[in-house]
User: What shape does this take?
Amino acid sequence: RTTVIRINQSDFKPEELLPAAQSLAAGGLVAFPTETVYGLGADARNARAVRKIFEAKGRPSDNPLIVHISDIEQLESIAATVPEKARRLMEAFWPGPLTLILPKAAEIPDETTAGLSTVAVRMPANPIALALIRLSGVAVAAPSANLSGRPSPTCADHVIEDLSGRIDYIIDGGSTSVGLESTVLDMTADSPVVLRPGGISVEMLERVIGPVQVDKLPEMGGNTVPKSPGMKYRHYSPKAEMTLVCGEPERVADTINALVAENRAKNRKTGVLAASETQMSYAADVVLSPGSRQEPEAVAAAIYRCLREFDDQGVEVIFSETFPEEGIGLAIMNRLKKAAGGRMIRV
Ligand code: TXA
Ligand code: MG
Assistant: This one.
């Protein structure tokens, strides 16, 4: 049985989180809100508890987890060493949507890091997440709280849909603010490498530590081995087949409308994902907009909700506009490309 606890993130008492925190400390599984997406947490040092995360999600066991902390002192028992540049990033962006890859300490079991000698760590900015971690007294290993392969959850209903009956607690703290997963930055190479773009943009990182590299999204079906094991799976995906169409706006609209007509003629339920500015140009069965091109943060926050909505409405093929790849736009496009499994048409 799964217990749902509702918490008002701007006005709550830590005691309200006590049953969930005790469950975590005792090896249970607890889904909780962070500022990015909901996480599915377990005690990072308890190998048995961590194995249950992989079972509940149906996650491949070679995909390592992020260890979440509430206080900087916890780092000592998680990372073997912390480079100076990593310290500066923590000072600038923690708590917040930045995950750092560091050499792992001996106390962290192989289950948490999928056997790697490195560990991913972050301090989330959501007050419920911080209070829960602190109260539990443990570092919390947590992937996104979705079934493997589905879009990450940005509200408790998404978690309930995917994991109800499979875990001990779900803390409902409302919608997440960033809406896309944290930036994953590898600090173990000679120069830092972004393995997954996210809430903290490349531009923001470079203002603090100078140049960083960005790992290219591995080509689907290609034989390059990604540095971040999670990047090789086609996840963040709706059930429908999705195709991105990029180019000059009018040509994009014409192309998408032609593709929609072609698919409707075959009796397929069609969907279009478009910016609010151009949403009116489309004649599909379901047209959804994550927001305005002028507000990329709002677009990021709404993308996963849109992808789930297409699924809920039984859409079979989705065509999507693209967004500029600057700032948070790099993360938006990274998730859209993955949801599309690399299908992109240039017009
Ligand atoms: O915003 C987030 O990061 C959310 C919330 C819950 O904190 N968590 C999240 O976790 O997105 P997950 O498991 O869905 O994604 C973790 C990513 C995966 O791509 C994984 O391969 C990578 O981080 N990762 C974890 N440990 C790693 C390591 N030691 N080396 C390289 N990549 C690692
Ligand atoms: Mg995930």
